[in-house]
Design goal:
Length: 493
C-alpha cells in the first residue's frame, strides 16, 4: 500500500513519449497519478465511466448579482459548492433564493432532483462530492456538476468511491492547476468507476452511511463541550447571560438621544441584547479594563509580494501569510498545506508585524452575513516554530501586556465576546465587506481576575477543550477507517 500512502507530489520526473496518455501537461502525467490509474484498471470486475451510467450530466450558471434573479425566503434554493457537506447536509436557511421564473426559465437545465450526484468542479472545493438527498426543488451554479445516474449505479456508492484516497486522486488528476482550477463536464463524464454488482454497491454505501452517523454523534458531543466553555467562563466571571424575548416586538427598541449624539447612528450598535451583555460584563465579579489599556502593541498586516526564484534575501523574508480563511469556526488557525500562502515580506516591515508565541490575531475585514468579522486566534508554539509568520492586511495583531493579563485568558474572553455576537455590533459594512471598527473593539471592557484565577480558568477550559478535540479526532478517524475499508473492498485487497 506504499503507493496509496499520502506523500508530496513529484516536482521533477521523466516520462517516455509513448507513455503519455490524455493530456500533455506535467500535472496530468505525474507518476503517482499514472500508477493509481493503472492500479484501478487491474481490479477484478468491470470498469466503466460516469457517462455510460448517467441519464444526464449538467452544471448551472450564476445569474447577475444585484439583478432581478433573486428573492427572499419563498424562492428556489440556489446551491453552491460550499453549501453541501460530505454528510450530504444542506442548510437551506443560509442559501440564496432564485425567483421561480429564473429557475424555470434560463436555469431550467440545471434543476436538481433527489439522488443527483454533486461534484465541485471549480476553485478550492474541487473534488468535493455529495448526493442531493432532498425532495425540495433546487438549482446549482457553474461550480457544481450534477450527474443523474441510471439504476446501474447507487449514487451513495459513487460518492463513497470518490471520497476514498484513490477516488480523490483520480479527480485531482484531471483538474487544471491554473489560477482558478477547474474541470469540464466532458472530463467528469470520463471519470472511471468500478461497476460492482448492486448488492456490493449497497453494502459499501451502507458502510459509509453508518460511519457518517457515528461521526455525527461524536461531533455533536464535541460541539456540546465546546459550547459549554462559554457557559463556564460566564459563570466564573459572574456574568449573567441576558435573555431577550424573541417576539416581533423585540425587533424594536428605543435609545436616548444623548446615547447617540456624536456616535454611530445604525441600530446594530444600540440593540437591547448588546446593551444587556455590556452591562452584565461591567457588573460581573471582577473589575474591568479596556482592551486598549491591556495592549502593548497592535499592527495591521501586509500582503507582501509574489515569491520569485531570485528574490533578494537581504531585503525580503519568505513568510507564511495568515489570512481570515485560516480561521475556523472554533477560533483556531487551521493551515492547509495545499492552500497555504507564502509571500515575500519586506524585513523592515516585518520588524513591526512579526508574530510571537501568544500573540493574538483578529479578523478585522471580510466576514459574511452569517459570520461577522472578529474571529480571534492565538499563535501557538507549534505554529510559530514551523514557519516565519506574517498576516494579511485583513488581519490585526494584538500583543497583550503579560504583566496585567495572561494572553490565553484574553483569547478565551474575546472568543466569548464573538460567540455572544457582541463583536457584530462593532462592525461596519462597505461594498459588501464587513470591517471591524477597531476604536470600538479596543474600547470594550475586559474583566480582569487575579493572575492566579486566570490560570485556573485557563486550566479548566483546556480540560474541556482537549476532550472536545479528542472527540473530533475520533469522529474523523471513523470516516477515514470507512474510506480505507471501502477502498480495499473495491480494489479487492
Amino acid at each position: 500500500m506504499d503507493l496509496l500512502s499520502a506523500r508530496k507530489k513529484d516536482n521533477i520526473f521523466i516520462i517516455k513519449r509513448s507513455e503519455i496518455t490524455g493530456r500533455l501537461d506535467p500535472h496530468y502525467n505525474q507518476p503517482l497519478f499514472s500508477k493509481l490509474w493503472d492500479k484501478l484498471y487491474l481490479i477484478s470486475g468491470e470498469l466503466t465511466t460516469l457517462r455510460k451510467n448517467s441519464i444526464c450530466i449538467f452544471s448551472g450558471i450564476t445569474p447577475k448579482s444585484g439583478g432581478d434573479a433573486y428573492t427572499l425566503n419563498d424562492g428556489i434554493p440556489f446551491v453552491r459548492s460550499g453549501d453541501f457537506s460530505e454528510m450530504n447536509e444542506i442548510d437551506f436557511s443560509k442559501l440564496l433564493r432564485l425567483k421561480r421564473e429564473i429557475h424555470d426559465g434560463i436555469m431550467c437545465g440545471s434543476q436538481l432532483q433527489k439522488n443527483d450526484l454533486l461534484i465541485a468542479i471549480v476553485g478550492a472545493t474541487i473534488g468535493k462530492v455529495g448526493v442531493y438527498q432532498y425532495d425540495i426543488e433546487a438549482n446549482i451554479n457553474q461550480a457544481i456538476c450534477a450527474i443523474r445516474l441510471k439504476n446501474t449505479l447507487n449514487p451513495y456508492y459513487v460518492q463513497a468511491f470518490f471520497q476514498t484516497y484513490i477516488g480523490q486522486k483520480i479527480i485531482e488528476r484531471i483538474k487544471r492547476p491554473v489560477a482558478r482550477a477547474n474541470i469540464n463536464l466532458e472530463e467528469v463524464g470520463n471519470l472511471p468507476i468500478p461497476l460492482l454488482d448492486l448488492h456490493k454497491q449497497n453494502e459499501i454505501a451502507q458502510i459509509m452511511d453508518d460511519s457518517r452517523l457515528q461521526k455525527q454523534a461524536k461531533e455533536r458531543e464535541a460541539n456540546a463541550l465546546l459550547a459549554s466553555i462559554d457557559d463556564y467562563l460566564l459563570s466564573e466571571l459572574g456574568i449573567e447571560r441576558p435573555t431577550i424575548a424573541r417576539t416581533e416586538n423585540g425587533r424594536f427598541f428605543y435609545t436616548s438621544y444623548k446615547e447617540v449624539i456624536g456616535k454611530r447612528l445604525d441600530p446594530l450598535a444600540y440593540s437591547e441584547q448588546a446593551q444587556k451583555i455590556k452591562h452584565a460584563i461591567i457588573n460581573g465579579k471582577y473589575p474591568c479594563s479596556s482592551l486598549k489599556s491591556l495592549t502593548i502593541q497592535e499592527a495591521a498586516g501586509d500582503w507582501g509580494i509574489d515569491i520569485t526564484d531570485d528574490y533578494d534575501m537581504q531585503i525580503y523574508s519568505k513568510c507564511l501569510v495568515l489570512r481570515s480563511t485560516e480561521f475556523n469556526a472554533h477560533h483556531n488557525l487551521v493551515i492547509d498545506d495545499a492552500k497555504a500562502k507564502y509571500r515575500l515580506i519586506n524585513k523592515k516591515k516585518l520588524q513591526n508585524i512579526d508574530l510571537q508565541i501568544n500573540d493574538l490575531i483578529i479578523e478585522k475585514s471580510g466576514g459574511s452575513e452569517n459570520q461577522p468579522v472578529g474571529r480571534i486566534a492565538i499563535i501557538t508554539k507549534n505554529l510559530w516554530e514551523n514557519d516565519t509568520l506574517c498576516y494579511s492586511n485583513f488581519v490585526q495583531k494584538i500583543r497583550i501586556n503579560k504583566n496585567k493579563v495572561i494572553p490565553k485568558y484574553m483569547y478565551y474572553f474575546l472568543r466569548l465576546v464573538h460567540n455572544l455576537k457582541l463583536t457584530e455590533t462593532m462592525q461596519s459594512q462597505t461594498n459588501g465587506i464587513r470591517n471591524l471598527i477597531l476604536s470600538e473593539y479596543y474600547a470594550q471592557q475586559i474583566p480582569i481576575p487575579s493572575i492566579e484565577k486566570q490560570r485556573d480558568i485557563i486550566s479548566q477550559i483546556e480540560v474541556i477543550y482537549n476532550k472536545a478535540i479528542e472527540l473530533q479526532k475520533s469522529a474523523q478517524e471513523i470516516i477515514n477507517k470507512a474510506k480505507q475499508e471501502i477502498e480495499a473492498m473495491i480494489l479487492g485487497e
